[in-house]
Specification:
The structure holds two protein chains of two kinds. By secondary structure, chain A is α+β, with helices and mostly antiparallel strands. Chain A folds into two domains: 79 residues, no CATH class; 68 residues, no CATH class. Chain A is built from five helices and six strands. Chain A is globular and about 40 Å long. Chain B is mainly alpha-helical. Helices cover 59% and strands 0% of the residues of chain B. Chain B has five helices and no strands. The longest helix of chain B is centred in the C-terminal third of the chain and has 21 residues. Classes of the chains: A alpha+beta, B mainly alpha. At the A-B interface, helix 3, helix 4 and helix 5 of A face helix 1, helix 2, helix 3 and helix 5 of B.
């Protein structure tokens, strides 16, 4: 039983269409076909679905209890890469340094950041990015925090960087 | 876009300011400093960098040397972030609930 990308369409769980992220994923088993979720964090939970958790570029599904008898234990939590071209690394696979940095973000923001999961492949690049962002993101700037954020939004938009 | 918009919103940026930064178009709601700073971000982010003397003189009229260096460093650093994330298709963490423009893929 595998994940499949269902393409654009309605979410079977709550019947709504999300305009900006019309990607729906679901199980290939027709008996589980109703377990389809938007590949969009937060949207699903706001719509009342509580058994799917989407983490940025990866999706972690926890199936509801009624369906667990159909799945082996290893399938209770599955992940599938939806967008990122490089596999996200977490936990033991990511290494100690990435684990610490992801832990810092988890404590500060409630979840590890997607770039960190990808950068975990190259620890020195990840550390450089982490430290530089830490420095640029802290302290007072003569030009003003608001203007700093405005130019950063503009640069990210110009480069088409959704993160 | 996502994390900067979320941080900006938390720091006190109005929705109009965030939308103006996203829109790539001149907005009447922006102050002259904001408008010039955004144009500077566009010019520094272009390849090759395009900051003519006349524009820089205008920038010096509105910003101190320290502010110009800070702006330049932030713009260059955000380019580093964005140019690291975009080719790898790193997705947003969805901290901000605003709709963002979809990235346009260029085909050469």
């Amino acid at each position: 039983m595998t994940w499949q990308h269902m393409g654009a369409g309605q979410c079977h769980a709550h019947g709504s269409v999300h305009p900006s992220q019309p990607h729906v994923v679901g199980w290939s088993d027709p008996e589980l076909a109703h377990l389809r979720y938007w590949a969009h964090p937060g949207e699903h939970r706001r719509a009342g679905c509580t058994d799917g958790t989407v983490l940025g570029a990866r999706i972690v599904m926890r199936l509801d209890q009624a369906m667990l008898h159909k799945l082996d234990e290893a399938a209770q939590e599955r992940e599938v890469a939806t967008m990122a071209r490089v596999r996200s690394l977490e936990g033991r696979e990511a290494g100690i340094l990435a684990g610490i940095i992801q832990g810092v973000f988890r404590l500060a923001l409630g979840r590890p950041l997607n770039p960190t999961k990808v950068q975990a492949h190259a620890p020195r690049a990840m550390l450089a990015s982490f430290l530089s962002n830490l420095l640029f993101g802290s302290g007072r700037w003569a030009v003003g925090r608001n203007l700093v954020q405005m130019v950063r939004i503009r640069v990210a938009a110009r480069n088409g960087c959704p993160f | 876009m996502d994390i900067n918009a979320a941080v900006g919103g938390k720091a006190g940026l109005a929705r109009e300011q965030i939308e103006a930064a996203l829109s790539m178009q001149a907005s009447s709601t922006l102050s002259e400093r904001e408008r010039i700073a955004l144009e500077y971000a566009d010019r520094v982010s272009a390849t090759p960098v395009d900051v003519p003397d006349a524009f820089f003189a205008n920038l010096q009229r509105l910003f101190s040397e320290r502010e110009i260096v800070e702006l330049t460093a932030h713009i260059a650093h955000e380019n580093y972030n964005a140019k690291s994330n975009r080719p790898l298709r790193v997705e947003a963490n969805n901290f901000c609930e605003m709709p963002f423009p979809q990235p346009q893929a260029k085909v050469s």
